[in-house]
Amino acid sequence: MDKTTDGWLSGMIGVVIFSGSLPATRVAVQGLDPLFLTLARAAIAGVLALALLIVFREKRPARSDIVPLLIVALGVVVGFPLLTALALRHVTSAHAIVFIGLLPLATAIFGVLRGGERPQPAFWIFSALGSTAVVGFAARNGVTASLAGDTLMLAAIVACGLGYAEGARLSRHLGGWQVISWALVLSLPAMLPLAWWLRPASFDGVSHAALWGLAYVSLFSMLIGFVFWYRGLALGGIAGVGQLQLLQPFFGLVLAAGLLHEPVPPAMIAVTVAVVACVAGARRFARREPVRS
C-alpha cells in the first residue's frame, strides 16, 4: 500500500470515528452532566496523551506555540465538546449532525482569517447557499422550539473550526497527533481536578450506556480519532484527505438511526445533502496557499 492510499484509509477511519461523537455524547448526557462530561473526557484523554508523549519522547513545543495550542485546546478540547453536550439536551443527535456539515466551511473561513488565503468568488456563493440551507431547515422545523440547541451547535462549529485552523498551522512543525496531545496536556492541570470536583456523588445511578458514551468520546473522539485523522492528512495531503470530512454527516445520521433509533426524516437527509454539496463546492473554489506562521 503506497503512502497516498494509506493516508486516505487513515483519514476515512478518523472520519468514521468522529461520526460517532454526537450519538455517543447524546447517550452520555442522558446520565451525566454536560460540564462533567466535557471535563472528564478531556482529563481521560489528557492522561493518555501525556503517556504517549513520554513514551515517544516528543520534544516540548516552543514558547511561541503555547498560545496557539491554548486556542486549539479552547476550540476542540473544551469548546466543541461542551457546546455540543449542552446542545444535545435540546436537540437530537441527528438534528445536530446537520450542523456538522458546516464544519469544513468554518475551518476554511478561519483559514482565510488566520492563514491569509484568498478564495475565489464562487467560494462565497457556495458558502451563502450552505448557510441558507441550514437556517431554512431550522426555521422550517420551528426555530423557536430549538433556538437554544441550534445556537449552541453553531457556536460549537465556530469553536471547532478555529481549533482545526490553529491545529493545521501548528502541525506543520509540531506534527499531527502531537498537536492534539500537547493541547490535551496543557488542559490537563485544569481538567483533571475540575472533573474530580464535579464528579457525581455516586455512579450507581448512571446507566451503562452513559458510561460507554463517556468512554467513547474520551478514547476515540478526543484522542484516537485525531491520531488517524492527522496521520491521514500527513500521508495523503491536507487538501485531498480533508474532503473526507464531508462524509461525516452521512455516517453520523446512519449511526443516530441505527444505534439510537432516532427518526431521520427525508427533509433532514435532504438538507444534509445540500449542505455537504455546498461545502464541497466552496472547497473546490478555495485557493489553498501555504499557511503562514
TrEMBL record:
Keywords: Membrane, Transmembrane, Transmembrane helix. It is found in: Membrane. It is a multi-pass membrane protein. The chain crosses the membrane at residues 7-29, 35-55, 67-88, 94-113, 122-139, 145-165, 177-198, 210-230, 242-261, 267-286. It comes from the Bacteria. The keyword Transmembrane helix applies. Residues 9-135, 148-279 form the EamA domain. Pfam families: EamA (PF00892). GO terms for cellular component: membrane. Belongs to the EamA transporter family. This is Permease of the drug/metabolite transporter (DMT) superfamily. It comes from Paraburkholderia megapolitana.
